[in-house]
Structure formats: structure tokens, C-alpha cells
Write a structure and sequence with these properties.
The protein has a domain at 3-21 and 73-177 and 231-313. Helices cover 52% and strands 1% of the residues. It has helices at 3-14, 35-42, 47-50, 54-80, 88-99, 106-118, 129-132, 134-138, 162-169, 173-192, 200-224, 244-249, 256-261, 277-287, 299-306, and strands at residues 85-86, 291-292.
């Protein structure tokens, strides 16, 4: 195999602008392109050799929770739906934090999610379990070569920021640097606190590979399980459901039927008893002045919750994306 061909295969791992839309709509797994993603999950087996310590378990859990918030609070509720406002600096910082979750760049993530709301559980919804089954909606859809490019026409509001476009284009840069940091952090702890029983390799396996893999599959359940198990308070025209267990796992994202009824609000647990940790943390950031103009749940949404037989007649609008016609 020629060096040119090898480089042609490897280059898209680092520069996503080299990804192009295939000419057909056939689902096809790009095995070369997804090798790093598969390698990340297989690397979890390394726990057999590096062992475990209380320190790395705490770090893994802490990074899991921190990055769940980065994905749910910013990739989802900010970049995808613009449910609050923030500064350009904070926008960049939380984009960086979200990218450590290895769920691609913020523009790619937001474009796919906006498309999901436009065609929820229709054939154009690339991760609908109704259309394609559980495994494809959980993980398979990201391996499809036609889903690799970023649909920039769906995120014109985000494409105005060159720093976000750069991060989105080179979406493996931040995860690689983050993994390197964790390795050397573990080495540092081994030197200054040998009694803690950790090491660079152990910190890398637990802090990056295990924590990130669990994070990916946890947030992936909103694509798959939240369209299969739970209750429908609103007639949204799709299979979105509210599921308390998934809400606890994903900091509030499990109130998925609520979200599909009105995506433009910052909260997804519409009532006080619907635990929505992401909303609580965003509210805290608003008290600090880091974010502001948090969009509430309109009164008409609560009225429809009380009269579910009538809510199917209310047209669904997407005021959070004014540049696009994303009505159902």
C-alpha cells in the first residue's frame, strides 16, 4: 500500500474538512475513519494491566459528570438551541470542555441535533430507533460516512465564529491534548503522592478512556432509549418520551418528551419534581453572571400539559433558530 493512500486514509482523522458527502444515501460504515473511536473503547480493556485506585475512580467520575454538563448544558441547550446567552469567551471555554467528551465539534453536534428536531423519527432522522433500531441509534449512526461532514447550512449562527469553526474542523486536537494531560497528571501524582497508588497509564485509562466511553453511551441513550421507554405527556408527533432514570443519568436530558414539545427553553424538567441537574447548574452560572437571559417554559406549554388531547393541534415552532425553517 502506497504512503499517499495511507495518508489519505489517516488525514480525515485530524482534519474533518476533508470529509465529503457521498453521492448516495445508502448507509455505509467507514471502518478506516472510525478506527480511533473504536480504539478508544477497546483501550478500556487496559484496566486489566493498570489496575485501579480510589484516586482514578474519583477522577473518572468527576470528569464524567463535568463533561455530561458540558454536553447537555452547552453542546445541547446552548449551541443547538440557544436557550440562553453568554459571552464569546465563555462560549469558547465551554466548547473546549465539550470537545474533551470526544463527541466531535460543537457545529457538527448542533447541526445533527437541529436536523433531529426537524425530522424526529422520520427517515431523515439519522439516529431514530423507530427507523433504524436500537444499536444504530445508540452508536451505529456516527460510523456512517455520510454523517461525518458538518452541515454548515444548519448552523449559520455558529459558523460566524472562526474559533468555533477551527475547533470543529480539527475536532481530535482537544481530545488528544486532554489525554496527554491526564497521562502526565498521573505521572505527577505518582511522583508526589506514591501512596495513592496511581500512575500515568492508570490515569489515562480511567480518566480518559473509561470515563469518555461511559459518557458517550450515557448521552447516547437519549437518542435510543428516550424514544422507546417512558411516558408521553405531549403529543409531539414522534416517539420522544420522558424517562426519570435517563434524566438522572444524563443530568435532565431524559425529560425528552418535554424537550420535543418546546426545545427553546433552558429547562427540560418542566416541573419542580422533574430533576434537571443541568438546569440547576446553568441557573448557578447565571447567578455568577457567566450566562444570562435563560428562556423559561411558556405558560401555554403548561396549559397543553393539562389538556393533552388538544396539544397535538398546536404547531411546533423553533424560535431558538430564527435563521432556519425548522418546523415539523
Amino acid at each position: 500500500m502506497s504512503l499517499v493512500k495511507i495518508l489519505k486514509w489517516i488525514f480525515p482523522w485530524f482534519d474533518t474538512s476533508s470529509s465529503i458527502h457521498p453521492n448516495n444515501s445508502e448507509r455505509k460504515v467507514d471502518w478506516i475513519r472510525i478506527l480511533p473511536f473504536l480504539g478508544m473503547q477497546l483501550a478500556c480493556v487496559g484496566v486489566i494491566w493498570v489496575g485501579v485506585s480510589p484516586v482514578v475512580v474519583l477522577v473518572a467520575l468527576g470528569l464524567f459528570w463535568l463533561r455530561v454538563f458540558a454536553i447537555t448544558g452547552f453542546y445541547h441547550r446552548y449551541f443547538s438551541h440557544k436557550t440562553f446567552k453568554t459571552s464569546r469567551a465563555a462560549q469558547f471555554v465551554f466548547a473546549l470542555l465539550g470537545m474533551t467528551a470526544v463527541q466531535r465539534g460543537p457545529l457538527w453536534w448542533a447541526a445533527h441535533h437541529r436536523n433531529h428536531h426537524r425530522y424526529s423519527d422520520q427517515p431523515q432522522d439519522v439516529h431514530s430507533p423507530t427507523q433504524f433500531g436500537f444499536w444504530w441509534s445508540q452508536i451505529g449512526w456516527i460510523t456512517d460516512r455520510k454523517n461525518f461532514p458538518t452541515q454548515m447550512n444548519l448552523v449559520p449562527d455558529l459558523a460566524r465564529y472562526p474559533e468555533l469553526v477551527f475547533l470543529n474542523r480539527f475536532d481530535t486536537l482537544v481530545p488528544i491534548l486532554f489525554a496527554v494531560f491526564l497521562f502526565f497528571f498521573g505521572q505527577f501524582l505518582q511522583g508526589v503522592r506514591p501512596e495513592w497508588g496511581t500512575s500515568g497509564a492508570q490515569m489515562l485509562i480511567w480518566g480518559f478512556f473509561i470515563s469518555t466511553t461511559l459518557l458517550f453511551h450515557a448521552t447516547g441513550t437519549i437518542n435510543s432509549l428516550s424514544h422507546r421507554f417512558g411516558r408521553q405527556r405531549f403529543k409531539t408527533g414522534d416517539d420522544s418520551r420522558n424517562n426519570v432514570w435517563l434524566a438522572l443519568l444524563t443530568f435532565g436530558e431524559g425529560w425528552h418528551n418535554n424537550h420535543h414539545q418546546y426545545p427553546a427553553t433552558v429547562r427540560q424538567g418542566f416541573y419542580w419534581w422533574e430533576i434537571d441537574v443541568t438546569f440547576y447548574l446553568l441557573k448557578f452560572l447565571s447567578w455568577l453572571g457567566i450566562i444570562w437571559d435563560l428562556k423559561p417554559v411558556p405558560k401555554w406549554v403548561y396549559k397543553e400539559a393539562q389538556c393533552p388531547a388538544q396539544n397535538s393541534e398546536t404547531p411546533k415552532v423553533f424560535p431558538h433558530i430564527p435563521a432556519l425553517e425548522l418546523g415539523k
